[in-house]
Design brief:
This protein is of the alpha+beta class. The chain has a single domain (38-192), classed as Electron Transport, Fmn-binding Protein, Chain A (Pnp Oxidase, Chain A, Roll), CATH 2.30.110.10. The protein is built from 6 helices and 12 strands. The chain has a 7-stranded antiparallel β-sheet. A 3-stranded antiparallel β-sheet has the order 1-11-12, with no helix packed on it. A two-stranded antiparallel sheet has the order 7-8. It is globular and about 50 Å long. The protein starts with 19 loop residues before the first helix and ends with a strand. Bound molecules: flavin mononucleotide.
Length: 214
């Protein structure tokens, strides 16, 4: 049996933290789609590396290029939007489970006067084709140039950033499925963002998901 949901938050959805349904739409918790986890890296205005843990992106391309489409970037605050608007270049870095805790630390270290990559126990390295830092320990780095930025909808607090992938760096242990591989517990990490039961309001904890290749 299918339930139909009008454009209205289910009554059973209580607020777990203040402002929850302003930052995220209730539908994110209802549909519970896992999203790949990555870090967007840029240089701040003072030249220090910036890292933003992120999981609201997808990737698409055709003959003319391959692109990342990143949603959920606040327009009015945060280093990432300022850096991308100013530098028009950024890198997308995919971490594995091994370095997850360090990646999460970038949230605590989200300060203008810090090198957020080094402070979190990771290594910042120069990109090949753009002026943005890469995270050395990430198994896949996508060096991007800004294609366009748009608000999600008129009056939205968030924007969509489209980046053209200019250069790709990938660890050979990861493009070989006989070694570590891209899938399974050593590969791409998915964000399972507190899925909720719309009838009972029960919420599962945030968890990391891994893709099983079958
Ligand atoms: C799994 C996950 C968890 C996150 N948790 C938080 C959080 O607890 N607090 C927060 O402010 N941002 C959180 N974020 C969002 C950003 O990572 C964070 O705001 C970032 O440090 C902003 O960086 P910027 O100012 O350099 O753009 C989370 C993102 C992801 C993908």
């Amino acid at each position: 049996m299918k339930h139909e949901f009008e454009n209205k938050k289910p009554e059973a959805f209580a607020t777990t933290w203040e402002g929850q349904y302003e930052v995220f739409n209730w539908a994110e918790y209802l549909i519970g789609i896992p999203m790949p986890i990555l870090l967007i890296t840029t240089y701040k205005e003072n030249g220090l590396p910036n890292a933003c843990l992120h999981s609201w992106s997808s990737f698409s391309g055709e003959e003319g290029g391959h692109f990342c489409i990143m949603g959920g970037i606040p327009i009015e605050y945060g280093h990432t939007i300022k850096d991308i608007t100013r530098n028009k270049e950024f890198c997308i870095n995919f971490p594995s489970r091994e370095i997850w805790e360090k990646c999460y630390k970038t949230i605590e270290n989200n300060k203008f006067e810090l090198d957020e990559i080094v402070e979190s126990g990771l290594t910042a390295e120069e990109a090949i084709s753009i002026n943005a830092p890469r995270i050395k320990e990430c198994f896949l780095n996508l060096e991007c140039t800004l294609e366009w930025i748009k608000p999600l909808y008129e009056g939205s607090k968030c924007c969509i950033i489209c980046g053209r992938i200019k250069h790709i760096a990938m660890d050979d242990e990861y493009f070989d499925e006989n070694k570590k591989g891209r899938y399974g517990e050593s590969g791409f990490i998915m964000n399972i963002h507190s899925p909720k039961n719309p009838l009972t309001g029960e919420s599962l904890d945030d968890k990391l998901g891994f893709v099983e290749y079958k």
